[in-house]
Amino acid sequence: MPEGKYEFKPTPEILSFREEALHLASGNFRYAAMIAGGYDASNLKEIYERPELQSKKAVIAFVSRSYDIMINQINSESNLNQTTYYYRWNCSKECLARKGFEHQSHHRGKWAIYLRLVGAKPPGEQLIWKDGQKTPKDISQKDWKESKEYKSYIQKVD
To answer: Quick one: CA dihedral 87, 58, 16, 109, positive or negative?
Structure first.
C-alpha cells in the first residue's frame, strides 16, 4: 500500500489498512504467547494510537517482528502436540500455529481488496519464499508424487 494511503478505510466503521496490519501483528504476538503458555493482553486501541506506529516503515517493522517472534516460538517448542488454550478452548500448540496462518490468510484477502479500492495491484503471494530467494518452478503432479519429499510426508487430516 502506498504510504499516503495507509489510513485508507473502505468504510468509516472498519479498520484502516495500517490498523489491519497492526491487528495482524498483535494476533501473532498473542498466538506466540499462548503457544508459550502465557497470554498477551495488549490493548489494540492503544497500539493503533502509538505515535511510533504511524508510518509505513514502522508498521512493517512491527509486523516483521511479530513474525520473528511467532516463528521463534514455534521453533523453540519441543512438543507442538501439547495442549494449551485458545481463549476458552483447549487445543494443541500446533493448532494455535495453524490458527496464526489462518488469521494471516484472512487479512491477506482483506488487504487485496483495500489495494484494489485505491487503484493499486496486490503483489503476488509469497507465503514461503522471501524476496531475493529463487522461487522453485512448478513440477507436474506425477513428478511431485514420485519425489522423496512427497513420500516422506505424514498425512494429517483434521
So the answer is: negative
Residue 114: inside a domain, yes or no? yes
Contacts of 91 (CB under 8 A, 6+ apart): 83, 84, 85, 99
CATH of the domain at 89: 1.20.120.450
* Residue 36 grid cell: 508459550
* Pairwise CA distance, residues 82 & 46, whole Å: 33
Residue 133 to residues 69, 113, 128, 144, Cα–Cα distance (Å): 22, 27, 10, 21
Q: How far is it, in rounded angstroms, from Cα 107 to Cα 109?
A: 5
Does pTM surpass 0.85? Answer: no
Query: Over the stretch 51-84, which tens digit does the pLDDT of each residue have?
Result: 999 999 999 999 999 999 999 999 999 999 998 8
